[in-house]
Amino acid sequence: MKKWMVWSGVVLVAGAAAAWWFWPENDSKGMQAPTAKVEVRTIQQVVTATGRIQPKEFVDVGAQVSGQLEKIHVEVGDNVEAGQLLAEIDATVLEARLDGVRAQLKYQQAQLAEREALKTQAELNLRRQVRLREDRATSEEALEAAQAQAAAEAARVRAIQAQIEQTESSLRADEANLNYTRIFAPMSGTVVSMAARRGQTLNASQTTPTILTIADLSIMRVQAQVSEADISRLSKGTEVYFTTLGNRGQRWNSALDLIEPTPQVENNVVLYNALFDVDNTARRLLPQMTTQVFFVINQAENVLSVPAAAVSPRGPNRAEVRVQRGTAPNMQIETITVETGLSDRVHVEIKSGLEEGDTVLLNVGAAGMPAGMPRGMR
Q1: DSSP 32
Q2: Residue ranges making up the domain that contains 135
Q3: CA–CA separation, 151 and 115 (whole Å)
Q4: What beta strand segments (E) does 32-76 contain?
Q5: Together in a domain, 340 and 285
Q6: Is 167 domain-assigned?
Q7: 287 in the same domain as 310
Q8: Cβ count within 10 A of residue 138
């Protein structure tokens, strides 16, 4: 029995030694190091940010007169054309006021006709007094009285004319207010929200109450918040793409339009708004959607690459990579120096030293995972 146990131990030791000899690479736990292939890919350096989608063009449609909201002809989601009737406010009070101003205008016009007749009479009397005075058939006092009467009547005519102008101005204002009881769409678009309801009383004496909001959803604007550490890396025209929380598999592409100069400070973090537009003809983007935004600072297209965990930097654009040659049981491990290029922290561009399809070994950390890999990749 003891002899059998001794021979079993010898066999186990020999097996372990053979496994160590033919194993391509071992980490501190005696496990095989993971490998990866040299692949062709596009590597990008990006600035990431979160953003919010809003319509590029929208308008809050409000009421310019006070009154009860009598009719609403649209609902949320309806498409409307510019000039289309949207809502109506009860016009009873305004119509009554307008009738009163029109009546006042007619009265003043009648007064004007009367005063113009008196003015004509005064002018005729003045001319008669002038002729009589030339013939010394009337006194100087009578002539002066006729002159004063003609001037007074002319002044009264001008006063009534001024009153008429004032009334006509009030009439135009009241007619405009009456027209404001019928609310029309100022632009074509989609009704995206409704702030008022039928029967609600609107008070426009201090602020303009909003009834509904119309937006053009064919072009959306993304407002991305970029940290102050990254904002200097962006400029107008920078390539950008984004995904939405509900559809991470689809990318929307655009270019940076504007960086707002005034930052927002949230929890002592300084953020700048970076704005860009995107076509939304398919109506798949909706207001207030949250986006993950990627500003492309630099990129290398269709280049050889290896995982960052396979690279051991040895200076500017130089690194060492362990390459696995051959097949088991005749595999060999070679350490070669390569020229590196762009890196996105997950993959590194290889400019020279490797070929597509080569097998490289990943550096294994203490946890048994490739060193240098982002936490989310482990």
Answers
A1: B
A2: 91-179
A3: 12
A4: 35-37, 39-62, 67-72
A5: no
A6: yes
A7: no
A8: 16
Residue 107 identity: Y
The residues of the chain scoring below 50 in pLDDT are: 1-30, 366-369, 373-378
Q: With respect to residue 348, please indicate whether it lies within any of the assigned structural domains.
A: yes
Backbone angles phi, psi at 158, to 5 degrees: -65, -35
Mind spelling out the 3-state secondary structure of 168-199? HHHHHHHHHHHHHCEEECCCCEEEEEECCCCC
Helix (H, G, I), strand (E, B) or coil at 35: strand
- Say whether 28 sits in a helix, a strand or coil: coil
- Do you know the residue count of the chain? 378
The pLDDT score that the predictor gives to residue 134 is 87
Torsions phi, psi for 172 (to 5 deg): -65, -40
Residue with tokens 């001024």: 162
Domain boundary, last residue among 299, 326, 358: 299
8-state DSSP, 364: B
For 197-249, write each residue's pLDDT tens digit.
Answer: 999 988 887 678 899 999 999 999 999 999 999 999 999 999 999 999 888 88
**Is the same domain home to 272 and 344?**
no
Predicted local confidence at residue 114, as pLDDT: 94
| 330 and 293 belong to one structural domain | no
Residue 76 lies in a domain: no
Q: What CA–CA distances, in Å, run from 96 to 90, 92, 163, 164, 378?
A: 12, 6, 21, 19, 77
pLDDT for 124-163, tens place per residue? 999 999 999 888 888 889 989 999 999 999 999 999 999 9
Same-domain pairing of 290 and 346:
no
Choose the final residue of a domain: 299, 320, 336.
299
